[in-house]
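Predict the 3D structure for this chain.
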Amino acid sequence: MIKKVKKGDQVVVLIGKDKGKKGKVTQILSKKDQVVVGGINIVKKHIKAKGRDQPGGIIDLEKPLNVSRVAVFCSKCQKPTRVGWSIDKSGAKHRICRRCKSLLEKKGN
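Done. Predicted structure below.
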């Protein structure tokens, strides 16, 4: 599968209880085609106590979303977009926004 969503990308949730929310991709589960987005799809989990060291309680967990439920957010046109590819003269391949044709690369690359 071609990776259109990468770790660190700003994404928008398209479907589900968190529809319309934005967040950064913190983890990619490529074998399951899922992504974990920071602050999105939070669920409560009840933990049983395991001795004195680990008390029981209720914790919040970020569960993965299917990659088809999110879209990459373009910072230039301020809209969710599909990802396209362009090859420059030197032969390097870059991800681009399908709406405004601007580069989607992160600042570190």
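The radius of gyration is 17 Å.
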